[in-house]
Amino acid sequence: MFYRPQEGHGLPHNPFNAIVSPRPIGWISTRDEAGANNLAPYSFFNAVAYVPPQVMFASTSAKPDRDDTKDSVANIRETGVFCVNIVEYDMRNVMNASSEGLAREVDEFEHAGIAPTPCRDIDCARVTGAPAALECRMTQIVKIEGAHNFVVFGEVVGVHIRDDTLINGRFDVTTFNPLSRMGYRDYTKVSEVFELSRPDD
């Protein structure tokens, strides 16, 4: 089949997310100017540069108590910092609990039963026990096409790595099976890896 998105796909469910998958999940923790914590997962997330290391995530909807966006973007506008927590398979249920649309004053760490740990170099909490966490300083927020679509870019200024994930000096994802988002309500986990050498290596 072929379809133009502006004309509709004619299927029972939108296939776009299922086509662009699997996608890593950025579990974004922020704190507002008053000191209230927020935690929310975003599947439009990825690393985008090595030097300096940079990441991005996109927020695509809004809440009534945040005007044109959601808590994560609003908090980053205020403070300029955020933390990306990597989601392991064993944390899938608490990650999902933190995705609930809650009032801005509700702490998702507390709501989902997740212990917060202070970041080291930014004023923000991170998920205790996450396989890795990236402390980030926002570099820009870009408004893209669509009413509530914002892309947040950040420079990684601090990296936390859980000790048991380091095997022979390498960050080994098979030690924790990162959770990835697919289409619809589907998820998957990474449990097997293989190497491919580039032709010019």
Automatic annotation (TrEMBL):
It holds the Pfam family Flavin_Reduct. GO terms for molecular function: FMN binding; oxidoreductase activity, acting on the CH-NH group of donors, NAD or NADP as acceptor. SMART domains: Flavin_Reduct. Residues 20-173 form the Flavin reductase like domain. This is Flavin reductase like domain-containing protein. It comes from Roseobacter denitrificans (strain ATCC 33942 / OCh 114) (Erythrobacter sp. (strain OCh 114)).
